Prior knowledge:
4-stranded antiparallel beta sheet; single chain; two-stranded parallel ribbon; alpha+beta; 9% strand
Amino acid sequence: xxxxxxxxxxxxxxxxxxxxxxxxxxxxxxxxxxxxxxxxxxxxxxxxxxxxxxxxxxxxxxxxxxxxxxxxxxxxxxxxxxxxxxxxxxxxxxxxxxxxxxxxxxxxxxxxxxxxxxxxxxxxxxxxxxxxxxxxxxxxxxxxxxxxxxxxxxxxxxxxxxxxxxxxxxxxxxxxxxxxxxxxxxxxxxxxxxxxxxxxxxxxxxxxxxxxxxxxxxxxxxxxxxxxxxxxxxxxxxxxxxxxxxxxxxxxxxxxxxxxxxxxxxxxxxxxxxxxxxxxxxxxxxxxxxxxxxxxxxxxxxxxxxxxxxxxxxxxxxxxxxxxxxxxxxxxxxxxxxxxxxxxxxxxxxxxxxxxxxxxxxxxxxxxxxxxxxxxxxxxxxx
Length: 383
């Protein structure tokens, strides 16, 4: 999470309230969500989550381009499975992929330009390999994406960012002449957190990457509805993948809330967390950010001597706060009211109104019997 951290100190800047990101989904599919998809639906889902809907002219052009690749692969079905799996990758590079580009995570961009990254190349391989009858799965790691293809029950990795990436770690001949032979070797790497995804989760990695990119530039209005869409989609097929999507959404909403907190929109920051929780449920991440917003709002009011308002807000919000943060707010309110009473007593006494000061001191100790400051004030006045 790139914007984590608690905001306790006030920063004196102009407060501006940005448009609140909607918690309604902005992306929909034309089919019911399923864990395993056919090749066409994989590309359709990848396009929709690249914000290039199939109904658009660009979407139709991209699907036409993909279908031409699928047609070119049709003849590979007669090959043995291992040869077929390798031939799909070769054809993908021969007919489309031309240049690696780390930020090309949108499938329409890959289909239109031939530029690709690990996500787009792996999605295209997943779809094409399925179209020729192979048992293939998308694999997601913390930093990478690739495919596994199953040949006679054995798992073979496909590093889709390299035209020779079928079964990496094996030396392969790339060309042969009368006097020479050329070989290539793609290193087999081991990635942490590798997990096979459902086709639906893997195809919509385009949306996950889009959300991450929008998050980096604080474009929460665009990012949150896409993240909500992906969460609702994956909830229908896989609990583990839905939990990851929920974490992604929480990170995004938390970052928006922290951004509002930094603009001094403390109450709005907290109330946005309430809306997220009302729709998707509370968790520690939301509660922490929510508590921080309430804490800052309470302290802002106290700094402006608006003690009653601070007390009212805490009474309404404390139920969903972290207990330690709610206790800190209570202590700060107590201290503010204690100081207010003390200052009233001192003002009256300094102006010669001993009886008025004594009356206020007695009221104060009755309301705050644990205050040593007010007890001392009363004791001094009774001497």
